[in-house]
Design a protein that fits this description.
heterodimer; A: mainly beta; six-stranded mixed sheet; four-stranded antiparallel sheet; about 0% helix; B: mainly beta; 11 strands; about 55% strand
Chain lengths: ~110, ~120
């Protein structure tokens, strides 16, 4: 696999700090959203998902927030670790549809 | 540890040659997806199958690309003839039984294709 590359937005955080990665989606009819993590040389890995009837969902060290009013999705990572360094993608699925559309990705860099 | 496997991991070929990429989905998964990842376009869905039947291939250039599932353990993506613009990483993903693309998708490691 490949990280998407040179022109990705980049978020740099200190180890131990919390990270917030944002995503604006385009389709107001989307009713299902997923965050993926892609490490260099690997395929995307599912992190957490949320349906449009929810505003918040928590996993292990991760929380996804959904604001349908402004079509915004965020991924919060608590106590960021070096192993969290990767490209993070949000993806949306339109209601009644069946295609998963990925955002452009954000590069997260964790500094020691 | 069940995972999606893809072969080859890397492929370098010349323009005009045929390229075949293979994917073995996770045993028991009934949906298979093909994606392409480039720096310019990001991750794009090319095609997907459920129970070996193609459900959507609208993201795939029809004139040169074809996707098949000869059996439940093998999915193939073929490009003939290949062109330099096809250079990308091609991912296969499989989904656990459920309602289609909203299944949790498990991605393979990808095939990096370079067409000279």
């Amino acid at each position: 696999g490949e990280s998407v590359g040179l022109h990705l937005p980049t978020l740099s955080v200190q180890e131990g700090d919390n990270s917030i990665i944002n995503c604006a989606y385009s389709n107001s009819a989307s009713d299902y959203f997923i965050w993926y993590k892609q490490e260099s040389g690997k395929g995307p890995q599912f992190i957490i998902d949320i349906r449009s009837n929810m505003d918040k969902r928590q996993g292990q060290r991760v929380t996804v927030l959904l604001n349908k009013t402004v079509k915004h999705l965020s991924l919060q990572i608590a106590a960021t670790q070096p192993g969290d360094s990767a490209v993070y993608f949000c993806a949306e699925v339109p209601g009644g549809g069946n295609k998963l559309t990925f955002g452009t990705g954000t590069q997260l860099k964790v500094e020691l | 540890d069940a995972r999606v496997t893809q072969t080859p991991r890397h492929k370098v070929t010349e323009m005009g040659q045929e390229v075949t990429m293979r994917c073995q989905p996770i045993l028991g998964h009934n949906t298979v997806f093909w994606y392409r990842q480039t720096m310019m376009q990001g991750l794009e869905l090319l095609a997907y199958f459920r129970n070996r039947a193609p459900l959507d291939d609208s993201g795939m250039p029809k004139d040169r690309f074809s996707a098949e599932m000869p059996d439940a353990t093998l999915a193939t993506l073929k490009i003939q003839p290949s062109e330099p613009r096809d250079s990308a990483v091609y991912f296969c993903a499989s989904g656990s039984p459920g309602t289609g693309v909203t299944d949790t998708q498990y991605f393979g490691p990808g095939t990096r294709l370079t067409v000279l």
